[in-house]
Write a structure and sequence with these properties.
Elements: H1 6-15, E1 18-21, H2 24-28, E2 35-38
Antiparallel strand pairs: 1-2
């Protein structure tokens, strides 16, 4: 384990596209809960959102919290 300089960590976070959103299925059921997280754009050929490699798995299909 290595300590991360808080400035470096904040720089990474500030570069990340973080959005607030609702799931369509929740809205369809009348739920109003909103979620906030980074967006990993694994559906577009050219990504519309930025998520640093430090936050994603190798396939860039999900977060890597290890």
């Amino acid at each position: 384990m290595k300590r991360v300089d808080p400035k470096d960590a904040l720089d990474l976070i500030n570069q990340t596209d973080i959005r607030s959103y609702q799931y369509k299925s929740d809205v369809a059921q009348g739920e109003a809960k909103r979620y906030t997280s980074l967006i990993i754009d694994d559906v577009n050929d050219v990504s519309k959102y930025y998520a640093p490699d430090e936050f994603t798995n190798e396939e860039r299909t999900g977060r890597d919290d290890r």
